[in-house]
Design goal:
Length: about 230
Amino acid sequence: MQYLNKMNIGNIYNIKLDEKTAYLAGVIIGDGHISNSCKSKTDLSKDYKIAIEVTDYEFLKEIETLTKQVIKTKSTIIGRFDKRLNRQKLYYFQFRNKSFHHFLTNYLGIIAGNKSSLVVVPIKILSSLRLQESFLAGLFDTDGGLRGKTSGFTSASELLIEGVSRILTNLNIVHYRDNWVNKKYNKKYYGIKISKKDNDNFLKKIPIKNKRKQNNCFNHVDVPEWSNGIVYS
């Protein structure tokens, strides 16, 4: 199936919301950036750049392949060393596509620019369980991982965590919510921990593509059935 057709007047994006694009939406909310600026100081036209940056090259190759099944782009992955992370190598996949930019921002309602504390689960993602599973997989592959001795999520956005909790409830996965203040930055964060009895079920149910993270989380040690948050099931 072709996901992107030639645009007609009045049809600014012609991209289908399906499991692929729901997964990519989760990835971009987790570790991506949607430009909200102009191309340059001299070119004031809108910049339709979308960028994803991770430390796992093999995983980003999966994202590059999936993206090219949705849109046409000649962009490829580049690597660079980040001084902030003790010169750890980061891999960067950046592309520009007007249709996909509009699909993400206008159709799904994902915030462009600085979104860390404002982002939410797009309401259209909740229209089917398969979309929810795919979106959650993309978010987990980028912004999820081990929390203590089980799988979980952390975000500066309370609304995002509320949305993730809603999806987990829809998928019948028992989980706990908590929050804390980062004293160094005096900033509040919100989190989710998957119940130990549902951790393997969670990892098998959602279509994870980040194999390194999946294997790491499968090798968890049992965590006690208590939390400083509230249990959701």
